[in-house]
Write a structure and sequence with these properties.
The complex is a heterodimer of chains A (418) and B (340). Chain A is an alpha+beta fold and 418 residues long. Chain A has helices at 18-31, 33-55, 162-198, 200-214, 218-229, 235-243, 257-286, 290-297, 302-338, 350-355, 357-364, 369-396, and strands spanning 65-76, 83-87, 96-99, 102-113, 116-123, 135-141. Chain A has a six-stranded antiparallel beta barrel with strand order 1-2-5-4-3-6. The radius of gyration of chain A is 30 Å and the shape is elongated. Chain B is an all-alpha fold. In chain B, 71% of the residues lie in helices and 2% in strands. Chain B has helices at 2-28, 34-39, 45-54, 85-96, 110-145, 150-164, 167-182, 200-234, 237-244, 249-261, 263-286, 292-302, 305-333; strands spanning 64-67, 74-77. The radius of gyration of chain B is 25 Å and the shape is globular. The model of chain B has no long low-confidence stretch (mean pLDDT 80). Classes of the chains: A alpha+beta (418), B mainly alpha (340). Chains A and B meet through helix 4, helix 5, helix 9, helix 11 and helix 12 of A and helix 1, helix 6, helix 7, helix 8 and helix 11 of B.
């Protein structure tokens, strides 16, 4: 029976005092204010994306209506007819209003001068004539209202709250970005390790495929693939709908989840191609290490060597690639949705909101908020990632301070006009 | 050098064949061929058959014959490869310079459309590259020779801002706030494109804003690369020698440092051709420029597979050729690079 012996052994670990550590973080932050700004933007993206349905003030999909008491009925031109003259009301065809408890629908606006509007209205059943002076209660869709306290970013032409749409846009961007990066980096890491480790014919086949895929300009490749798989009837879509547990309808508050997911997978393919090439290069040098040879001498299988000895050494590279490519993926989604081939119409995606035909026409007439804010959010997210990336680069290699050299081909996120 | 070029061109051949097979396969192996997509699933069998007949969709896909006498699958080439869909497509491109016919009624051949549209896209791209070089190299150089000064700080903040703002958003902002604040609208393309030779001034006016907007992102990348390359070069011994000889700053920077710092920039421009092509698709649709990019997008939205297929192949070819050209230029510019 072993007796428990209290050993007088105390491991003295060199750990900085918590207060000192905080001081160091603070002083680093003070030296890199832009990095802190970037961190703020990125955190905000994650916060809005994750908690979108909890923090949105309104439903981003719902048409906002409000009941207001508007002026008084000035004149019923023909009481049995449906023409009314209303003072002090802003109306649109399709609005409802209550007059003395009776619901009426605006069929058309006849003319509008000063604060008097002539409308044609449809009444439901009663033929009762209305006396002048009755109070009008209007149930209007609040479209295109200016930013105000109740709608900080205003409302768009569909009477939807722009702030809520921007917050949900963060969720869609984050969902597409993360899905694309996780699938892309996993697949790319897998093929990259296999290609680099086995060499010879495996390497040749994989790398020629990569060559072919890299021969397409990124946007053109995305557009071409989406033309094929993004269709309602495409086999890929049907396959995913039937054979995966992914919901076909609404999920996570996104009405067209499956289409959004397919867009993410297509972007993930482009990410995978790039990752494969980079990881393979790293594996080529790692597999020359003595410890790999030692593992092989001990009789480890190829799978074990790749998983236990090679993969841990490229894991950091894969994570870095993923974080560099995340804003690129977000931007790619916005670009193809902007072109009208990405997420389905009406989805609260930043790119899709930017491309809305009606909003852009309205913008030229001074209603700038439905387009301005989604674009601002997109720009701030990319800016945040870039600034954070720059700060990390500075911290890891002061020699390259602010040079942005690390981005290589893409030169940081954005890759220019995408 | 000559061997290097020949070798590089030869490598390109299998890649381009692979690209053409992938492009073709992507658009033709999906269920529902071009005619089904064009006419919709509800079309009558007769109209579908007519459409297939007219566009040669009854032919076999690839110019190979497969004898599946298991356990061996023998594949051998057929006598007339141009009788298959894939073979016929490539045959028309290679022999007749014919990129195919749009499925839309009464539309021109792809080659004819391209003849009108290519000059527009090319001019857009050339002007973009010029803007990007000017906007990128000068600030990048300035910030490298005056590191950690307000100029440097400004250039770095500008570069990260330019890098982050998507071109389509910038274009929309310019159009809108130009109109709202200054009552200014960009020259419209509705009346049509004015060739440079006809009226250089109007032509440049038309292209000024689209190419400026497109160039901003590329300029930012160039600026960052120029700055870091320049910093690297300025640390070299030969620069110190130049300083100690008492040369003026202008001479040292322009004649000794900049030339060497620009070598990586050349490669970068080659890499940005892909971004340029993607950007052209976007910017042409925002500014309503009737170039190849807008043509591509319209074809994609109409699901005009023949057009998309040929244009995708063309873009890949242009992209690959540009990269090849840049690699060769790089080897030629930098004598330290061995081409083997």
């Amino acid at each position: 029976m072993a007796r428990e012996v209290a050993l007088p052994l105390e491991i003295e670990e060199e750990r900085p005092e918590p207060r000192k550590r905080w001081k160091r973080v603070l002083s680093t932050a003070r030296k890199h204010p832009l990095g802190v700004f970037g961190l703020g933007c990125v955190s905000l993206l994650f916060f809005c994306g994750i908690f979108a349905d909890l923090i949105v003030p309104y439903n981003p999909e719902a048409t906002l209506r409000e009941t207001q008491t508007f002026g008084t009925l000035v004149d019923a031109i023909k009481p049995t007819d449906t023409r009314l003259k209303i003072a002090g009301a802003t109306l649109e065809a399709g609005d409802n209003f209550d007059i003395d408890g009776e619901r009426m629908l605006v069929v058309a606006i006849l003319n509008s001068s000063g604060n008097t509007t002539s409308i044609q209205a449809q009444r439901s059943s009663s033929q009762q004539a209305h006396a002048a002076g009755a109070t009008l209660e209007l149930d209007t869709a609040i479209a295109n209202t200016k930013p105000s306290w109740s709608h900080p970013f205003g409302t768009d032409h569909n009477a939807k709250d722009v702030l809520s749409r921007v917050i949900f846009g963060a969720r869609i961007s984050l969902l597409i970005g993360l899905t694309a990066i996780i699938t892309g980096v996993t697949a790319g890491g897998f093929f990259g390790v296999i290609s680099g480790y086995f060499g010879k014919i495996v390497d040749t086949i994989i790398q020629r495929c990569v060559d072919i895929l890299l021969a397409f300009p990124a946007v053109v490749l995305l557009l071409a693939i989406i033309t094929v798989v993004g269709d309602e009837d495409s086999s890929v879509r049907r396959f995913i709908a039937r054979n995966t547990p992914l919901p076909n309808g609404e999920f996570l508050g996104i009405p067209t989840f499956l289409d959004v997911f397919i867009v993410a997978l297509v972007i993930g393919l482009a990410v995978a191609v790039f990752t494969t090439r980079v990881v393979r290069g790293a594996v080529l040098s790692i597999k020359e290490n003595v410890y790999v040879e030692a593992a092989r001498a001990m009789g480890a299988s190829d799978a074990r060597i790749m998983w236990r000895h090679i993969f841990p050494n490229v894991a950091a590279l894969v994570v870095i690639l993923g974080s560099v490519l995340l804003p690129v993926a977000i931007l790619a989604e916005a670009a193809i949705s902007f072109l009208g081939v990405g997420v389905p119409l009406g989805t609260p995606s930043w790119g899709a909101d930017l491309s809305d035909e009606k909003s852009r026409q309205n913008m030229l007439e001074g209603i700038w908020w439905p387009v301005f804010f989604p674009g601002l959010a997109l720009s701030l997210v990319v800016l945040g990632f870039n600034m954070l990336g720059d700060a990390f680069r500075d911290l890891s290699d002061p020699r390259l301070r602010g040079s942005g050299l690390g981005g290589g081909g893409g030169g940081g996120a954005g890759g220019g006009p995408m | 050098m000559r061997d290097y070029i020949i070798r590089r061109v030869l490598i390109l051949v299998p890649v381009m064949i692979g690209v053409s097979i992938l492009t073709f396969a992507m658009f033709n192996i999906i269920p529902g061929d071009a005619c089904v997509l064009r006419l919709g699933f509800g079309s009558t069998p007769q109209t579908l058959a007519d459409c297939r007949e007219a566009h040669g969709l009854n032919r076999q896909l690839f110019p190979v014959k497969i004898d599946s006498d298991l356990p061996f699958i023998n594949m051998h080439a057929v006598a007339h490869p141009e009788d298959s869909q894939y073979g016929g497509w490539l045959w028309d491109i290679a022999v007749h310079q014919d990129l195919g016919q749009s499925l839309a009624e009464g539309s021109a051949k792809v080659s004819t459309e391209l003849r009108h549209r290519l000059p527009i896209t090319l001019e857009l791209m050339i002007m973009t590259v010029i803007f990007a070089l000017v906007l990128g190299i000068l600030p990048g150089m300035l910030s490298a020779i005056r590191p950690n000064t307000p100029i440097d700080w400004l250039a770095r903040v500008l570069s990260v801002l330019w890098l982050s703002i998507p071109s389509f958003y910038l274009a929309i902002l310019l159009i809108t706030f130009g109109l709202l604040w200054f009552g200014w609208t960009p020259p419209q393309f509705g009346e049509g494109y004015v060739p440079f030779m006809d009226d250089p001034w109007v032509n440049l006016e038309q292209f000024f804003f689209p190419s400026l907007v497109l160039s901003v992102g590329i300029a930012a990348v160039i600026m960052r690369l120029t700055r870091s390359a320049m910093l690297e070069v300025l640390r070299n011994d030969y620069i110190r020698t130049a300083w100690s000889k008492g040369l003026r700053e202008r001479t040292v920077v322009w004649r000794h440092a900049l030339k060497n710092a620009l070598i990586p920039v050349v490669t970068l421009i080659g890499l940005q051709v892909g971004a340029l092509i993607g950007g052209a698709v976007i910017i042409e649709s925002v500014y309503n420029l009737n170039g190849v990019g807008k043509y591509t997008l319209e074809a994609i939205i109409r699901r005009d597979l023949f057009v998309v297929q040929s244009l995708t192949l063309m873009f890949a070819f242009v992209y690959v050729s540009c990269n090849l050209f840049v690699d060769i230029a790089y080897a030629w510019l930098d004598p330290r690079i061995h081409y083997n």
